[in-house]
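Batch 3, record 17
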Amino acid sequence: MKTTISEVSKHVGEEVTIGAWLANKRSSGKIAFLQLRDGTGFMQGIVVKAEIGEEKFQEAKALTQESSLYVTGTIVEDTRSPLGFEMQVKDFELIHEAVDYPITPKEHGPEFLMDHRHLWLRSSRQHAVMKVRNEIIRATYEFFNENGYVKIDPPILTGSSAEGTTELFHTKYFDEDAYLSQSGQLYMEAAAMAFGRVFSFGPTFRAEKSKTRRHLIEFWMIEPEMAFMDHEDSLEVQEQYVSHVVQSVLNNCKIELDTLGRDVEKLEKVQAPFPRISYDEAIQLLKEKGFEDIEWGEDFGAPHETAIAESYDKPVFITNYPAEIKAFYMKPDPKRPDVVLCADLIAPEGYGEIIGGSQRIDDLELMKKRYEEHDLTGEAYKWYLQLREYGSVPHSGFGLGLERTVAWIAGVEHVRETIPFPRLLNRLYP
Ligand code: 4AD
Ligand code: MG
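Prediction for the assembled complex:
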């Protein structure tokens, strides 16, 4: 009977066949241990000379890394392995012999591994990171579907900028100018006026010349947008959503978190509500922590975010930033118009900003004024202003960067390992 490694717990004591690749191998004179992977997981296969015969045993000893094979044997419990099961191999059939697989069990540098990303994805660590990513996506759909949100897909080719004009990827759209989407937000605002609560999940592009462990040129963003919700309501959605995602990974990715050596106690603490501090308080805190030179009105960099996060064991919201350092569409605080009703959510353990969100300006005249101040007068913006012309309502939304969230939850240092084929400042290959 054919099965997969993920299903072996249902076949204890039975003889099964699994299509697999040889991830690694060690052997002695009488016994060979095959580290098998089939895409669904990793499992050890034990080949005993006395049982399989001399000829087949020599064949097993000669198997090369990443050769593909059908392996047949009996599934038995193995309490020492993370999977909890192994196979006593009765027979195997080579499908394809891999010669000189470039990624050997020894250490390789990051550039070498990135050049071989198409193969590196097979390693147990990369496999675990992608499974965590997949669980975050699954839990995202679950959360928003259960809470009455409609999935809406904004366009990727756009005629205007959503987050400032300096980081746009320009292209031609026949005779017109077009840009790759930096954020679906403006379209999601239109969708919220049609469907109430919506969310998107798609790729976004930033032509940012940043070469840090938190920056990708192409990354995936989850962007909910909610009609009739103010800033405070939105923060509650955010903390509920992030808690749901973290708890889902803890429940459904135990083997992967173990493979990654993730300290799960830190993740277990991530339960709503999350602490909130204002930008003003954050400035004060930073001064106390030795950033004496920081002045009100400056944006925070990675070291600032890390220093603020150190004071908490949950993600922390920094709210009400100065209007001048935030996007044109954010609603000013009615009590204090020099700051806006926004928040960045900063992940613990130095992983930085994972969410940017705000209440949006719903007043037509103020939005027009912002447009002029930001020099955003093109045709493409006409439709966005019309949302404030016909039945404008208070509304809020946010964007969660998937890769930074994966990096934090999986405990991975650099975002390049959190997306299957990263696009970085100097990398478009493979
Ligand atoms: O803070 P940002 O720029 O917010 C927006 O784009 C809003 N329009 C979202 C909204 O309100 N609908 O980006 C949101 C998140 C950041 O918090 C970060 O997690 C991620 O997107 N992000 C990046 N991730 C990887 N590489 C980059 N270059 C990123 N830029 C932003
Ligand atoms: Mg931001």
